[in-house]
Design brief:
Layout lengths: L25 H11 L10 H8 L3 H13 L3 E3 L6 E3 L1 H13 L1 H17 L2 E8 L2 E8 L14 E3 L4 H9 L2 H11 L7 H17 L16 E7 L8 E7 L6 H23 L4 H6 L1
Antiparallel strand pairs: 1-2, 3-4, 3-7, 4-5, 6-7
Helix pairs in contact: 2-3, 5-9, 6-8
Length: about 280
């Protein structure tokens, strides 16, 4: 297997970035940014809050939320002018989940894993600078972490983020670095170091554990394994997490990490896919 390369293409000059491509629809991108601003824990968002989260001027946000509400992607309950995700967005999400074949196949595997290990199993996808929790499987009859679908996790100092860095192609790594742009201290030199270490963990053990002493959230321990579907252009990450008292470093290494690796390999076999790390380095 080929080690991760030490060089990557130079960052594209500003004129080559998406925002400067004539094919790039800025208004559409801003509208999608408004939808991505919502979190499961929100009791609705006002235009000012959306503006703060997205960096889009409030006057522009007002036009976007009106349009999205008119099309059914947002609900406007006329309570303090707060918006919530609408039925059209729910339908769109269900269509997406149904069209990505591995999501349904992973359900029984990940629920079994959550029950056997007493951990919260997660599916994460990249969403700009962060990783977005797209699906969760909670252990039955066991209290677990509060993390929900829609929660975002940083790439730096998270097992999920480190696994993603290890599994993306060299071009994918370059795109990630353009997006991350120093988020939570993840500059290019640090990202290369993380990429090499996580790659080594995947080759030696099949899973990735970020250093718990540097973890982005001290109340979480987690182990992660990447997965590459034919339906998607870059890997996703399956992760198991729990409180440090319930998921010690020894348990991550000796039990949960190997079981998570086995579960992802089972999913790959069902779909006739090679390992994500083999596909990247081959």
């Amino acid at each position: 297997m080929i080690e991760p390369q030490e060089t990557r293409p130079m960052s594209a000059p500003k004129s080559d970035r998406l925002e400067d491509d004539r094919r790039f629809a800025t208004t559409l991108a801003r509208g999608l940014s408004v939808l991505r601003a919502f979190r499961p824990s929100d009791d609705g968002l006002g235009n000012a809050e959306i503006s703060e989260r997205t960096g889009i001027p409030k006057a522009t946000v007002s036009r976007l939320t009106f349009t999205l509400q008119s099309l059914g992607y947002l609900n406007h309950a006329h309570r303090h002018d707060r918006y919530r995700p609408g039925p059209a967005l729910l339908a769109l999400g269900n269509v997406a989940a149904s069209s990505i074949s591995f999501v349904e196949l992973s359900n029984s595997i990940m629920q079994r894993l959550a029950d056997e290990t007493g951990t919260l199993a997660l599916l994460l996808v990249r969403d700009g600078k962060k990783l977005l929790i797209a699906k969760t499987w909670r252990p039955r009859n066991v209290s677990s972490l509060w993390l929900e679908v829609g929660h975002r996790v940083p790439v730096n100092n998270s097992s999920s983020g480190h696994a993603m860095l290890a599994a993306v192609t060299d071009d994918g790594f370059a795109r990630m670095m353009d997006d991350i742009d120093g988020d939570r201290g993840l500059g290019e030199e640090r990202a290369r170091e993380v990429r090499r270490d996580a790659y080594s963990q995947l080759i030696a053990k099949g899973y990735v554990i970020a250093d718990p002493t540097d973890y982005f959230a001290p109340h979480i321990h987690a182990v992660a394994v990447p997965f590459q579907s034919r339906d998607l252009s870059e890997p996703v990450v399956f992760t198991c997490g729990a409180l440090p008292a319930d998921l010690t470093q020894e348990r991550m290494r000796e039990e949960v990490g190997p079981k998570l690796t086995e579960g992802v390999r089972e999913l790959e076999n069902l779909m006739g896919l090679p390992s994500a790390i083999v596909r990247r380095s081959g």
